[in-house]
Amino acid sequence: MYDINKIRADFPILSRQVNGQPLTYLDNGASAQKPQVVIDTVTRAYAEEYSNVHRGLHFLSNLATEKYEAVRGTVTRFLNAGSESEIIFNSGTTQGINLVSYAWAAPRMQAGDEIVLSTLEHHANIVPWHFLRERQGVVLKWVDPEPDGSLDPQKLLDAITDRTRLIAITQCSNVFGTVVDVKTICSEARRRGVPVLVDGSQGAVHLPVDVQDIGCDFYAITGHKLYGPSGSGAIYIRSERQAEMQPFFGGGDMINDVTKECVTYAAPPLKFEAGTPGIVQTIGLGAALEYLMDLGMKNIAAHEATLASYATERLAGLNWVNVQGTAPGKAAIFSLTMEGAAHAHDISTILDKKGIAVRAGHHCAKPLMAHLGVSATARASFGLYNTKDEVDRLVEGLELCHRLLV
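That's the Cysteine desulfurase sequence above. Prediction below.
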């Protein structure tokens, strides 16, 4: 049973007020709040268990290493990876995708080689590929969404040519909430010998994920969106792809031996994890993923689907609000514009006075904003602890915005 009141009680910040109003936190797409178990885990790791990992022989170093490395198993279970060695820790999706760009793509691509992207992508899954365009002459091929914000897998596959070296695609749009059929894309791309990177920053939050079933080569997640600490994350890299990669970062922990003449590298995953890592952040990420798995990702998805349906119904009653992206089966993410002169920043400011936190801006998706012909939207993104009452508060807040701005 999905006990929403019990779940909300797990998140201490949800009991506070903002501007004299109960906090209605609808900015989960940017960063989610943290349950008490994560806060306690991080506090304990600093207060009672802290030391550097992989290096010491004393009690605290061994304890910290044990706690840290246990998270690799947690992420493996969360994503259903084939092996713990396929999980590489990092600071989040941005670092994970940059690792792929520098350590896998850059050495393998020449001028004229192609990377296929969708216009739905977050900048984290755009800018690293622009680096290759600028520096190596790689060609970026773009596939636009349909009018309802959905993405036709066949159009993405039709963009493949004999020069295509990678498809880089989101599983869930952070602007529209569109859920992309990445399994179909990966299956056909693999048949054609084209690797696929999946940005799971939103997908892993809202959906059960099985990377072996999806069939992707790379799958990146970000901890702070998964109710864990900022500065934490991981990327799944299929072992066959790891064998094609050289390290991107060099330093401690990723070496086997160093002499004046040469260096030899540790086996994966440490080969790609140079330097002192985010020890406590990663331990906190493990606690967050265990919390999600205890709730059950299917249960979370069902709860959020109910919220999405209810929010769609309520927002449809506001004929002066435009919901950007209405694809069937979308996640509970709603990017809104308002008819008239109302700017997204003004909408966000007024909602904040009512204790309602939404995001306003381009959401690190400027190519998509240009495609839509807007400079910004106000985005309400729901999470596992949000309620129908909070949907109603959002609607009431938007009605106030309409009275004041239009």
